[in-house]
Design goal:
Bound molecules: zinc ion
CATH class of the largest domain: Alpha Beta
Largest sheet: 7 strands, mixed
CATH topology of the largest domain: Quinone Oxidoreductase, Chain A, domain 1
Number of strands: 18
Order of helices and strands: EEEHEEEEHEEEHHEHEHEHEHEHEHEHE
Number of domains: 2
Radius of gyration: 20 Å
CATH architecture of the largest domain: Alpha-Beta Complex
């Protein structure tokens, strides 16, 4: 089925570090198995900010200008041949990572590790893949997750970062009754803390060097916060946990935070790495892995958790609305990026598009 559409659309194109502008781009071509989506709301992610500020994100260096954005709510406007699982008019969010579906990783249920993944709004592919800071985007039909009617567009565009948090919490195993620390109070760290709390972790603490982020965490329901640079940190951790945290989620991407996690985790505990560190090697107290039987695990994007994320929000176990600190129209994408980069005041900044 095809809808009659303009052939051109407005999109926010990242041209180089610090330079993003609205340009006219062709509406993406609809191929078999794909759906064309009209974007309504899109969130600015830390990775979008990396591209905007540095012109790259970790090892991903774009080979040409491209459209950022991968956290969004959209409406299905037309279906490619063979699509049966979604209908025109449905309001959806999408898993922006399109795994190949046929490699060993995909077949063993770990499509988040698929090396042929095509990620929206990312330079992980060459050339880069255009994303959702545009009026239209195409995804494969199975990437769509239909939103409940009562869920608003702003919340729908928070499901992708929530899926990151949810997958990370699952990587730790059960956190019920466990003493949990999250290092880094950005959107992902906060969502991990809220998810761990919803799953029964007691207590849940969050560390951040910024006092404003610690304040925000407490306002959002995180029971304890610590300053990782505090001279009394060891005493504070002892008061909170006794002998240390059972599980530490490293969500800051700071080398010092990862190193400190080895000092704050209890014997037999688990450290989950979610934050993006640089590409260089980092010295770690590896002997502690053996002598204290520490589990050190990675967490990459989502796994297949989007529908579970939707249920957690729909049932009000997790409230993501408090993280949205700004909404600007697509035309003001430059200002929105600048706002999103203000670490002391901004959490999630979204673009209103449709
Ligand atoms: Zn993201
Ligand atoms: Zn694959």
């Amino acid at each position: 089925m095809t809808a009659s559409l303009n052939t051109q659309m407005q999109a926010a194109v990242l041209e180089s570090a610090g330079s993003i502008r609205i340009a006219s781009r062709p509406v993406p071509e609809l191929k078999p198995g794909m759906v064309l989506l009209r974007v309504r709301r899109a969130g600015i992610c830390g990775s979008d900010l990396h591209y905007f500020v540095h012109g790259c994100c970790g090892a991903f260096v774009p080979t040409r200008p491209f459209v950022l954005g991968h956290e969004f709510t959209a409406e299905v406007v037309s279906l490619g041949d063979g699509v049966k699982n979604v209908a025109v008019g449905a309001r959806v969010t999408a898993n922006p990572a399109r795994a190949c579906g046929v490699c060993d990783d995909c077949k063993s249920g770990r499509g988040n590790l698929c090396r042929s993944t095509i990620m929206l709004g990312s330079a992980s592919t060459t050339p880069p893949t255009d994303g959702a800071f545009a009026e239209f985007v195409t995804v494969r039909a199975d990437q769509c997750h239909v939103l409940p009617p009562e869920m608003d567009d702003a919340t729908g565009a928070m499901l992708e970062p929530l899926a990151v948090a949810l997958h990370a919490v699952k990587r730790a195993g059960s956190v019920a009754g466990k003493r949990v620390l999250v290092t880094g109070g950005g959107p992902i760290g906060l969502l991990v803390a809220l998810t761990a709390k919803a799953f029964g972790a007691v207590p849940v603490a969050l560390s951040d060097i910024l006092a404003t982020r610690r304040d925000t965490a407490r306002q959002l329901g995180v029971e304890a916060t610590v300053n990782p640079a505090s001279p009394t940190l060891a005493d504070e951790v002892r008061t909170l946990t006794g002998d240390g945290f059972d599980v530490i989620f490293e969500a800051s991407g700071a080398r010092a935070a990862l190193r400190q996690a080895f000092d704050l985790v209890r014997p037999g505990g688990t450290i989950v790495q979610i934050g993006t560190l640089g590409t260089e090697d980092i010295p770690l107290p590896a002997n502690q892995l053996m002598t204290r039987e520490i589990n050190f695990v990675g967490s990459m994007r989502y796994g297949n958790v989007f529908d579970e994320a939707i249920r957690l929000v729909q049932s009000r176990r997790i409230d993501v609305r408090g993280l949205i600190t700004g909404v600007l129209p697509l035309a003001e994408v430059g200002e929105a990026m600048r706002l999103a980069g203000e670490k002391t005041t901004a959490l999630k900044v979204q673009l209103e598009i449709g």
